[in-house]
Design goal:
The protein is α+β, with helices and mostly antiparallel strands and 205 residues long. It contains eight helices and nine strands. Helix 7 crosses helix 8.
Length: 205
């Protein structure tokens, strides 16, 4: 890990951060306050960034690659709650505010580069910058709504409907998320997912 200022790709990283949904349009003063708090970290496929049940919590801004939010039961059965890629984020904010252990893990689906900071430092930063806090908390609520909608979808839609919804909501991820991961997210077998992806859509040539 390194700071932005000492990273050999610092100029590219600064440009990537300014594309982040939460951080874009931040005033110069806020950037000056945030940048020294950030660490740049690289993770390999399958690496755990945050562990379910642990109390260590962080805020992540994704520069490259794809993360997943996943919950596991004591027998090891997993459910993927969401994927997030470049310009997006993932967070431990709700658990921090509720003072509860992490209810899910955050895992690298592909090789990933993130800018990260501890939740303590992120919350302190937000308290100093009300406009950023308002934007961030809106995005957190959107994430929670997205996860809830996905969970409901698994019960209400058939297999073709679940895949169709993912195509509509996340077209940029359809061919980037590994088949096994996407099948798990949609509660399908990889074989069923392959068959559905080969099926021609209505009106297709």
């Amino acid at each position: 890990m390194s700071s932005i200022d000492t990273h050999p790709q610092r100029n590219t990283i600064r440009l990537q951060l300014r594309q982040c949904l939460v951080l874009r349009d931040m005033p110069a003063k806020a950037w000056g306050d945030l940048e020294p708090l950030l660490e740049i970290a690289d993770f390999g496929k399958g690496d755990l960034l945050v562990h379910q049940g642990h109390s260590a919590m962080e805020q992540f801004f994704i520069l490259d690659g794809i993360l997943k939010r996943v919950v596991s039961d004591p027998k090891g059965k997993e459910m993927i709650l969401r994927f997030a890629a470049e310009n997006d984020m993932d967070t431990s904010y709700a658990a921090w505010r509720l003072r509860t252990p992490m209810p899910y893990s955050i895992v690298a689906v592909t090789k990933v580069r993130v800018a990260k900071l501890s939740m303590q430092h992120w919350v302190e930063f937000l308290e100093r910058h009300a406009e950023v806090k308002a934007r961030f908390e809106y995005e957190v609520m959107s994430l929670m709504s997205e996860v809830m909608a996905h969970t409901i979808t698994l019960h209400l839609l058939d297999a073709p409907g679940r895949l169709s919804r993912f195509k509509r909501k996340h077209p940029e991820l359809l061919d980037r998320v590994p088949k096994k991961e996407l099948a798990s997210y949609l509660n399908l077998t990889p074989e069923t997912l392959s068959r559905l992806k080969r099926r021609k859509q209505p009106g297709a040539p």
